[in-house]
């Protein structure tokens, strides 16, 4: 079954907000804290990649037809979504800029670097061996690129200002989903969750050493409720897969404890655990509360169930869907997520 899920996910990689309708406008109002948070940097996987995989030799791509159908100009950019992903929405809602560009984009200008870039990569995880055959940017590789970025920033604004930008910026880390759901070690090794937490701890401490002081770390989501798993392991009713959700919940508990420890260890920093798990579980269990109609299927799929290469068929009513494809969420859902995160944690980051 694990191998079947792995091939389904690979197939997906090759494939290409209500609260009420009137409330969406409110979700888009920026906080305008660019003077306090000068930039945003993002590390992670396909949930937050804005196109880095377009510029590397990898099997994992997100620039296929239908992806980006609601993006500016309706173009596919490498974002595994119908439109913007959380990376973009953080900088938009904070009033910094409209999009968070991928660091590897060769057309980036100095002004783009000053206000933040994205290092995330489709197929990545905390564990460098997770989906290693896809040749995505592992978390250690993303860290090396961040080091390279800092040197470029110093050349643009000077060392003192560069370090000030890094220390005052918001760092978002969103990964671990691939490790839990697709790395065989997650089922075969009883200590694997602890190993992942150790990977995460090393990475966060390395970010701190580089000057990062405002770090938000997402837990993994309620993986068992993704259409990918509901349609393969959820039975006739296509229910959420409890065993996978239990595994995700257990890892999140260990990760959150460690993040609290690091936050206390480094009193000059704000290292915050962000709950992705209960956010999705609330949407899935109470879809009408948020204006959703379709929970078990993805928009970008044949009959909302079977993903196809390049996603030649996408729903016309994506507003009704929580999920864009078999795993990733729609832009509307991501807007709800980012808005909730900033409501809950922004004051902590800037205090």
Task: Characterize the structure shown.
It is built from 13 helices and six strands. The protein is an alpha/beta fold and 351 residues long. Strands 1-2-3-4 form a four-stranded parallel sheet, with helices on both faces. A two-stranded parallel ribbon has the order 5-6. The longest helix is centred in the last third of the chain and has 24 residues. 49% of the residues are buried.
The main pleated sheet reads as: 4 strands, parallel
- Classification by helices and strands: alpha/beta
Low-confidence stretches: 7-27
Number of helices: 13
| End-to-end Cα distance | 47 Å
User: What does the radius of gyration come to?
Assistant: 19 Å
Mean pLDDT: 89
Shape: globular
Topology order in helix (H) and strand (E) letters:
HHEHHHHEHHHEHHEHEEH
Instruction: Note the beta-strand portion.
Output: 5-15%
How much helix is in the residues?
Answer: 40-55%
Report the count of strand segments.
6
> Biggest sheet, strands in spatial order?
1-2-3-4
What would you say about this model in short?
With 351 residues, this protein is an alpha/beta fold. It contains 13 helices and 6 strands. The strands form 2 sheets. A 4-stranded parallel beta sheet has the order 1-2-3-4, with helices on both faces.
Give descriptors for this structure:
two-stranded parallel sheet, 6 strands, about 40% helix
